[in-house]
Amino acid sequence: MEVSGRKECDDKHSISNKGRQLTVLCQPCECDGDTVEAEAFCETCNEFICSPCLKAHRKLAISKNHVIKSKDEMPISRKKQKDPCTELCSSHHTEIIKFYCEDHNYVGCGDCMVLSHKACSVKLVNEVSDSYDTSEELVQIKKKIETLMRRISFYHDDFVNGIKAADEMRDKIIKDIHIFRQEINEYLDNAEADLLKRIDQLTSKQVSQLGHMQKEFESMETEMRECQDKISNNSDKINQLFVIAKLAHEKIEACQISTEELASKCEIEIFDFVKSHELEKLVTGKLHIGAIHEKKSKSHIHSKKSLKNVQTTLVKSLSVRSVKDTNECYISGMALISCCELLLVDFRNYCLKLLNVEENEITRRFNTGDQPWDATSINLKLFAVTLVTTGEILFINTSNGISKSHSIKVRKDCRGIDYRNGVLVVSFERPACVQLLDMEGNIMKEFDIAKHCTHPYYIASCNGDNKSYIVSDFYNNALVEFTVDRKVKDKITSNDMKSLRQLVMTHDGAVIVCCQSVSDRLIMVTSKPREVLPFTVKGVKKPICLAISDDQKRMLIYDKSHNDIKVFDVN
Asked: Which end of the chain is more exposed for a tag (fewer CB within 10 A), N or C?
């Protein structure tokens, strides 16, 4: 059994045998800060030791019978230990998990295998756990935990901010009530008390609900941190690590579903104080001084800063080319999978790619068989991609590389795609139109926008409420916003807007647009009112598409002129 805390010393050993210089150090001495050359190796302890330590080793009752190798017989390196797994079965609480079912990718105790996996291919954990600490599956699990923790933290901040917003709204209304009350007679005290009681009831209910959901996020965050800590603390215990990682699968899936469900509820009712116009003119009789106005709409809470007044700093450039590419790359769409992984849509090479942002490496490549155009995230592991020529929406699973989940048939010439709350919104060319689809591909609504837009290359849902949408018209240099009842709400044009490509909605309702013909900047269109502003991104000559992190602290832009991804920090 390895001694806890000594692993960091293992990597410092450089050892050779028979004719090569021997430079291995005594591990007990080295971990105490001393540098002493090893003279022997204890196979029982799996540890290199010097002569003084060897003498002590042979004197102690607990170690005097250990198997010792002399200096000439010492191995080149320490062996990995087969640690005994101590994780208890969740179904049979007194049994230790010892078995792995290959058919169901499931770990369990002997009772589990006998009762539920008799016909399956079952192996002992210690038969399949070799080198699991360096496996790709463990790497992916660690990435998923990290991504999910960032997502949980992101939405947790929103709920904290929601409570603050509810309190601030309450304070503002109380202040309005007090200011207005000072303008009228003393007899309005009772009316004021009624209003204060009403706003307290409304906001305290929301604070209670948001606080409950906040605690759920904190609970999930704690659970994911425990998984993370278990994996970290058992990195040198292969069997334990294998079982813990397998058990983390179920927790990850449950947290993913709960995170998205709670995130969709991240909203508060909006109230306002409405003054009585009659009382402003003259106070006569027992009239109400006002009422708490309950607005029908709800406002999503986001704690992240606006991008209106920020600066961008170029961090690095990433290659988009794969060794299997036969044509020049053309990245027509992209979507963030996690903080360190990006899904690229390569139109000219008929493929999708996974780009590791930290390592600057294309780790996976998937041939689509048709020209893909745009991509959108359905959840943490499922993405939808439009295929232009065949007229399909391809659903891609990224939980372990890139694999096809399924596809649905739509009209040809499909271009932009976005997803919100169970609804896919897709833009088409020739003729220009937009369709709202359910997840089975059934058309819920269709919008003929040919009179207002000829080439709607990209589309986004405004404010995430499925009530209005905005498309970028490439050849007419315009953004067209229309409502769910087929009415054109706004048509935004500017001399600064040329050759519009992908657009992204920010948390505060602003639109960031790539303009292929404009260098060193993007275009921002503010929410209320709609105002066209430059968004500086030095070093980008032909921006085609972009992605923004959940916390809006990082922006990734595909630059066609250099055929690379520019990574910017947003400050």
From this structure: C
CA 21 to chain CA centroid, Å, is: 50
User: Which numeric CATH code is attached to 7-73?
Assistant: 3.30.160
Q: Which CATH superfamily is domain 312-570 in?
A: TolB, C-terminal domain (2.120.10.30)
Tell me the residue type at 145.
Answer: I
d(CA 92, CA 90) in angstroms, rounded, equals 6
Write out pLDDT tens, residues 421-460.
Answer: 889 999 999 889 999 999 999 999 998 888 888 889 999 9
Residue pair 84/97 in contact (Cβ under 8 Å)? The answer is: no
Q: In what order do the strands lie in the sheet with 351-356?
A: 331-338, 341-346, 351-356, 361-367
Which helix (H) or strand (E) segment is 548 a member of? strand 543-548
107's tokens: 């770990």
Contacts for 353 with CB less than 8 Å, ≥ 6 apart = 320, 322, 343, 344, 346, 362, 364, 365, 366
Residue 464 tokens read as 């995430």
Tokens read off for 363: 């780790």
Per domain, the residue ranges of the chain are 7-73, 134-300, 312-570
pLDDT digits (tens, 9 = 90+) for 166-206: 888 888 888 888 887 777 666 667 777 888 888 888 888 88
Q: How far apart are CA 38 and CA 27, in angstroms?
A: 8
Nearest-angstrom CA–CA distance, 419 and 396: 14
Q: Which is nearest to 449 in space by CA: 466, 470, 464, 467? A: 470
pTM of the predicted structure, to 2 decimals? 0.55
